[in-house]
Amino acid sequence: MSTILIQRAHILSMDAKIGEITDGDILIENNVIKQVGKQIEPTEDMEVIDGSGYIVMPGFVDTHRHVYQQLFSQAFTEWSLSEYYSQFLDDIGSKLRPQEIYVGSYIGYLEAINSGVTTVLHWANSTNTYEHGLEILKADSQISMRTIVAIADSVQPLDEDANFKKMLRLRETNSNPLTQIALGAISSDVERFKRSIKEAREQNVFATAHVGGVPGEDGLIEHLYEEGLPLDYINFAHCNQLSDKDYEIFAKEDISVSITPEIEMLMGHGNPPFYQILSKGGRPSIGADTTSVVGADMITQLRVALAYTHSVHNELVNIKGEEPSLGVFNAKSVLEMSTIDGARALRMEDQIGSLTPGKKADLMMINTARHQTAPLYDPYNYVLMNVNAGNIEQVMIDGKWMKRDGKVVHAPVDTDLLNDSTRFMKEQLERYQGVRV
Fold it and tell me: What is each CA distance from 125 to 84, 156, 292, 344, in whole angstroms?
């Protein structure tokens, strides 16, 4: 049995009952957190780690990331959302070989781990064949990251019935306990979307969909709700251009929402709807979306979320003279969104999202002793404003160290495969003006 004791750390548990502990200890047995507190007595069989000078907190839960698109890192930054649809989803995405999906997934998981992400919903919308899906499962098994893989095609218009069957087949094939297979559903055809939601619930499959990133979907959530559809097991991403009633339903019914602030403002989805949901009592979660457009660093998304939401609040107060009902929204709130609220959004709050005895040992250790980021006054502000991937020195997933002493433990992806896939992608991108290759 593997037993690890982290001593004398500054613990941000993200558990409302445990709270924040200075000079605290965490005891881990195998893959489970056994005890969180002070002065836990070590024994000879324990690996004892000195946590002084470190903040220890749960790993980030990224609830919406197209992980495999790390292969195209920042290649699409200048594209609008409509260009992404026409040039990638309708064209390049449909031509990707299984190899590109494997390479992109492998390096995408490593990039996520490097910035403290321990769980990710992988919106795999170029899983065009069963063989493409097998390559994702291969990368998952090699990296051993906690993942929900949402299976979807890139080809437009989608044959969602065929995609559903492919998803079920991959779910039967998957044997990795850290990987859950989910459905990537498409909302543009409302009747087909409703059938997908029902079918997913009947098969006990978690589902996720992009909604509200384009005009014309306001009122969609209200319609689904009034139809009595099972919305408790589906995650809605973006949700930018929805109605006030839609946002009320999100909050009232505790529906899973993932907002990806940086990309939504950059590509034209609409403004991130943090304020609309928070002001009604809802708790959205956060994702990075596609690193073919933005960077892989999760902390950046959290800073953007805080700044943008305060900007909306300040405009209401200072310019319009209104009395907003947002309440306290600060660094701690945003870190909760990226940990325990992210776990709730993925219906995994009983397993991850906080440093709570009985939950899985998914955590990160942040070095606060470096002169570049000292001193430390408020630990929540410190993490949000001063931390980067460089001082996230240790990352643990399921009781195993995935990053040690500032380095991801896994070997890089095969160089020949990476070079071949990069060459293939450059050939695809050369057909579009404005893309540097």
Answer: 13, 11, 13, 23
